[in-house]
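Hey L., structure's done. Input below.
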Amino acid sequence: MSATQAALEWRALKPEIGAEVAASKAELLGGDYADEIRELLEQRGVLVFPRVDFSSEEQVIFTRTLGTFVADTADETAYAVTMDPSSRSAELLKGSFYWHFDGYMNEVPIRASIMSCRVPAPSGGETEFCNTYAAWDALPDAQKRQLEGLRVVHALASAQLTVEPEPSYATFQQWLKVPRATLPLVWTHRSGRKSLVIGNSAVNVLDFDPLEGLELLVWLRDWATQEPFTYSHSWSAGDAVIWDNTGTLHRARPYDPASGRLMLRTKLAGEEPVA
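Output:
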């Protein structure tokens, strides 16, 4: 930022999560506020850029101003997110209707995702977020001490069981081919802040009775997704939203798959492993 440039303007959407950012498309594409946006993202978890109307190419440019762009496509464009039955990814996207974070199977989970809306659903289709930093901070100290040091297995099979609770054995075997990960329940970030590592991929707490471990995971999900820690974004065409994948969970709300809802997604490469 130059000495004469004004500070980034934003307003809190809720006390514990979310900010709406006031910046022009030119400023965003030029990286004028890149450092401020990264800092605000860690503080607020979710940033909204109303009706900024990025093209696919512009969204990639904006993503690159904030860090390392991770391509989902060979031509390095924004990835189209749609439930249209003709889409090869439509079946997998059904898991996005449940609380989750992305990249749990990667050694370093992605840092953040950016989603922009090309065509909103006529009804439904909101994206909800919860702040797992704030959820951790609000826990009683005695409970924090009980949770620290616990480790949890995350697996695609757990996430897919929310969509298809009675799969065939052959289908289940396919899910098991995707690597699983054992992660700390509490992530101590390099910044010193802590967040909960939960979501629909969490299947088992190590050294717990299976049902008692599941009970704890369900309780923590309910705790983290309470109203004070959550924000629901109702999409308008042209909106862009970026969320901190290392300190939030997210989910889409149901909508008609034939509605034509179309989103574009880009991702920032991870910068630290879960520890």
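The chain has eight helices and 16 strands. The chain has two domains: 9-85+108-122+232-268, 131-224.

-- N.
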